[in-house]
Amino acid sequence: MLTRLIYHSENHLGSTGGKMIAGLNAIMDAANRNNQRDGITGALLFDTLWFIQILEGEREAISATLRRIMADERHDAVTMMDARPIEARQFGNWWMGLAMLRGDSEALFARHGLGPRLDPRQMSAEQTLALAVDLASGNLNRRIDDAA
Ligand code: FAD
User: Fold this and answer.
1) Neighbours of 18 (CB within 10 A)
2) Is 48 a pocket residue for ligand 1 (Cβ < 6 Å)?
3) What is the largest CA-CA distance in the chain?
């Protein structure tokens, strides 16, 4: 059954440029490789404090991926925001699209009824999905087409 899962977690990659970028690249390399194999698509939004991830795919594949993700020490406090069956994918072009949320994303956040700083603890699953879909219309990296 096609399923969508949304969670947030605390980013432990640190806020210094080199370490964070190397860590993110390793995560994205593994995610793109494994998600293609497992038929998973989605989006990973992050800032220096938080990750928010949306995973779409068959329920068993999502569960297996989530077990690996939850054991990963590059983040902590994985917190479920939503899990439900879906009719169709919304991130079908991305094995895992990536978007950095910066301080200058205020206008984007305001469009979705969010404050100036990203705080997933205050966000509904609906707001999170709408924000990610908005980003997917222009600012996500690593489209499946690009990676090919
Ligand atoms: P490998 O290919 O052996 O590992 C992949 C790379 O990650 C290597 O560079 C390895 O050194 C490094 N690595 C693996 N585990 C750790 C660790 N615990 N600490 C530090 N470095 C490590 N995986 C997916 O398959 N799909 C996803 O969508 C996905 N999203 C993620 C989102 C977040 C926020 C995080 C933190 C991780 C995510 N991962 C995802 C990675 C996942 O946690 C596993 O690391 C990965 O699935 C392992 O892949 P692999 O078995 O191919 O291992």
Assistant:
1) 8
2) no
3) 40
Distance 32 CA to ligand 1 centre (A): 10
Q: Is the CB of 41 under 6 A from ligand 1?
A: no
Question: How far away, in angstroms, is 73 Cα from ligand 1 center?
Answer: 9
pLDDT tens column, 6-60: 999 999 997 767 888 889 999 999 999 999 999 999 999 988 899 999 999 999 9
Question: How many secondary structure helices (H) and strands (E) does the chain include?
Answer: 5, 5
Ligand 1 pocket test: pick from 3, 8, 9, 34 the residue with the most ligand atoms within 8 Å of its Cβ.
Answer: 34
The whole-model pTM stands at 0.90
What is the 110 CA–ligand 1 centroid distance (Å)? 32
Q: Domains in the chain, start-ordered, CATH in brackets? A: 2-147 (3.30.70.100)
For 92, the token pair is: 């079908």
Closest residue by Cα to residue 78 from 55, 105, 103: 55
Closest by alpha carbon to 54, among 40, 43, 62, 46? 43
Q: Which amino acid is at 132?
A: A
